Amino acid sequence: MPSSSRRTFLLTTASVGIGSLAGCFSQSCSPDRTQHDSDISLSDDVQWPTQYYDAANTSYNPSANGPTGDVQLAWRYTTCNPTEVSAAISNGDAYFENQVINAQTGESTNEWGDTNSTPTLANGTAYVHSSNLEARDPTTGEIQWTYSIANTSNTTSPTVHDGTVYVVENSLFAVNSETGEERWTFGRPLDLQTPPAVRDQTVFLTTPDWMLYAVDTETGEERWNIQPEGGNGLAPPPAVANDLVYIIAEWETGTIQAVNPSDGSVAWTATTGMQIANKPAVTEASVFAVGNNDEGGAIVALNAETGERQWARTLGDESLVTVTASNETVYAGPEFANEDIPVYALDHVTGENRWQFEVRSRDFGDYSESTLTGITVVDDYVFAVTSGGEVHAIMGQS
Question: Which of 32, 106, 276, 379 could form a disulfide with 291 if both were Cys (CB 3.0 to 4.6 A apart)?
Answer without folding.
Answer: 276
